[in-house]
């Protein structure tokens, strides 16, 4: 069996690439690596955060599916994401710092590594550094054991292997390019949802989404179908709709005997924090005694 050190070394070599130049040597703790463009030198990072305060989680939404290693505070240490509708894999490591001369990020486990193209400017949306590639054929093997990532002289892991059920479900979803189940289109049965008292509501159907924790909502008139990972089909909530300024509005009702309130407002460029997609509306949600945020768009 390979030692943890050998796995990290293997991933670091994969990140630096092959060829005649040979692998780049990682600097010692007391020695900084020179930057090619004169910028601040990269400092090696080696983390192993898969202790009792971290856990793997399979997260899904209308935008795709993610396998994330979460800290005790719920922040993603390492996230693998496959957007819906395209066979693409995004790997994000929040602790990595961008290096202007480094355009390759590698991740893997079990003696296998996969290289992705990284943006040397960093990932402004998710933080840290992200790499992108097509979904590899051996994705199931890459996430089937302890997972590590490397970017230049920086490494993260090895992290404890994801639970087999989560890793298999993630690999299958990515390979099929399905991500999460897409929301159902509005149907004729939604007719009563467009009536509030004697008034017929003129409200465009909306789809809302939020992350960390993941949730979704389909809005049809005064009806809101609220979903989350433990209730993927969703629960319909009859609400009272109140129009808001600039095309926004508020839907107020009860879920499980507790207050439910969803409000939208215009905010072009709203980001769900997971995919590269932007939305025209921002969402504020109060549910189960918690406050959450997200984005929305017309169905």
Summarize this structure briefly:
The chain is mostly beta strands and 299 residues long. It contains 3 helices and 21 strands. A 10-stranded mixed β-sheet has the order 1-10-9-6-7-8-5-4-3-2.
Description of the molecule:
With 299 residues, the chain is mostly beta strands. The protein folds into two domains: 173 residues, no CATH class; 111 residues. Helix content is 10%, strand content 44%. The chain is built from three helices and 21 strands. Strands 1-10-9-6-7-8-5-4-3-2 form a ten-stranded mixed β-sheet. A nine-stranded antiparallel β-sheet has the order 16-15-14-13-21-20-19-18-17, with no helix packed on it. The longest helix is centred in the N-terminal third of the chain and has 13 residues. It is elongated and about 65 Å long. The protein starts with a helix and ends with a strand. The N terminus is likely disordered.
Overall spatial form: elongated
Distance between the termini: 51 Å
Structural class: mainly beta
Major sheet = 10 strands, mixed
Helix-strand pattern, N to C? Answer: HEEEEEEEEHEEHEEEEEEEEEEE
Rounded to the nearest angstrom, the radius of gyration is 22 Å
Query: Percentage of helical residues?
Result: 10-25%
Number of strands: 21
Low-confidence stretches: 1-51, 178-190
Instruction: Let me know the average pLDDT.
Output: 76
Number of helical segments with 4 or more residues: 3
Number of domains: 2
Query: For the largest beta sheet, what order do the strands appear in spatially?
Result: 1-10-9-6-7-8-5-4-3-2
Residue share in β-strands: 35-45%
């Amino acid at each position: 069996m390979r030692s943890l050190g050998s796995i990290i070394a293997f991933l670091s070599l994969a990140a630096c690439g092959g060829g005649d130049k040979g692998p780049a040597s990682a600097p010692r703790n007391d020695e900084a690596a020179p930057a090619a463009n004169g910028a601040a030198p990269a400092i090696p990072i080696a983390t192993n955060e898969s202790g009792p305060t971290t856990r793997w989680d399979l997260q899904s939404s209308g935008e795709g599916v993610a396998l994330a290693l979460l800290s005790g505070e719920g922040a993603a240490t390492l996230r693998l994401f496959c957007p819906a509708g395209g066979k693409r894999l995004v790997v994000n490591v929040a602790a990595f710092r961008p290096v202007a001369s480094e355009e390759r990020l590698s991740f893997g486990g079990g003696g296998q590594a996969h290289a992705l193209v990284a943006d040397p400017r960093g990932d402004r949306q998710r933080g840290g550094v992200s790499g992108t590639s097509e979904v590899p054929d051996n994705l199931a093997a890459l996430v089937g054991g302890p997972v590590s990532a490397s970017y230049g002289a920086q490494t993260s892991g090895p992290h404890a292997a994801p639970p087999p059920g989560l890793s298999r479900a993630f690999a299958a979803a990515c390979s099929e390019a399905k991500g999460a189940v897409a929301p159902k289109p509005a149907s004729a049965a939604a007719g009563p949802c467009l009536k509030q008292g004697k008034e017929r509501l003129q409200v465009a159907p909306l789809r809302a989404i939020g992350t960390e924790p993941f949730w979704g909502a389909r809005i049809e008139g005064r009806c809101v179908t609220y979903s989350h990972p433990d209730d993927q089909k969703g629960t319909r909530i009859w609400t009272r709709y109140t129009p808001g300024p600039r095309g926004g509005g508020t839907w107020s009702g009860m879920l499980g005997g507790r207050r439910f309130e969803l409000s939208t407002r215009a905010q072009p460029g709203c980001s769900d924090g997971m995919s590269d997609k932007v939305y025209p509306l921002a969402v504020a949600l109060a549910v189960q005694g918690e406050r959450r945020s997200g984005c929305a768009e017309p169905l």
